[in-house]
Amino acid sequence: MPIQFGLGEAFALLSALAWAVGVILYSKLGTWLPPLQLNFIKNALVLGMLAGAVPLVHGLALPDMSAAEIAIAVTSGVIGLALADTLYLKALNQLGAGRMGIIGNLYSPFVIALSFVFLGERLGPLQIVGFVLVSSGVLLVSSKRERDTGGPSVLSGVLLGVLAILLMAVAIVMVKRVLEAQPLVWISLIRMGGALLGLLLIVGLRGELRSLNPRHMRVHWPTLLIAAFVGQFLSTLFWLGGYKYTDAMVAAILNESSSAFIVLLAWLWLREPMDRRRACGIALAMAGVGCMVV
Fold this sequence. Notes:
Blueprint: H1 7-29, H2 35-58, H3 67-103, H4 107-118, H5 125-142, H6 152-181, H7 184-205, H8 221-245, H9 248-255, H10 258-269, H11 276-292
GO cellular component, one term: membrane
Membrane topology: Multi-pass membrane protein
Keywords: Membrane, Transmembrane, Transmembrane helix
């Protein structure tokens, strides 16, 4: 059977790796900045990076986009970056990376269901096996053997996390056809612009515009710059590139490997312990990735 590992599959895996680096850094930044401020400032930094990347990648000519395509890209940014990312960071602060990793398992089922209904995509038998293996592996590496009091904060975090993952899935499926037809970095720039407009609207309605002044923020800038570049700029380009060049279902499942990468990086970088359960989870996830690309 021929290997079906193309540009889209490569981008999806690179996105998972870049996002894993970002999650580790964002978990540290979350101790200094509230979710709304962190989301706004990292997106503002990435918008500047994308604005600089557009002429380098696509030249100075404007893309030939219809008003409907621009509106879809902007709306996708508002939903997937302004709303979903803010909810995700808030849930991450309440639940921790382990529980959020488990909730993140809902991402590919959400994308698969939406792609089935709205994009007409289907998985082959071996890809279904790959989905089961990746999801099982991610569940193993993300789960924690600990008592859970199930208090209001945990319940609130779970609900916020599920809503965040659902909004991410909606945002990427709605922009899939536009991605296929238009320049990648331009779409990334327009989505990020929509995200910042959405965040400004949210903050303005809450009367907290002064909180977005960098002088009022206590943040470790070197960590934030690295997190924004790797965990958002590169991750976003690879993520959207994956959906541009392969089926949304396939890209979503390969994106799930980010949890395995997080555990690996935490072991290598932060010297966190690697037990048998996590090692088995990583092996299952990588086996599932193999099934997805053959």
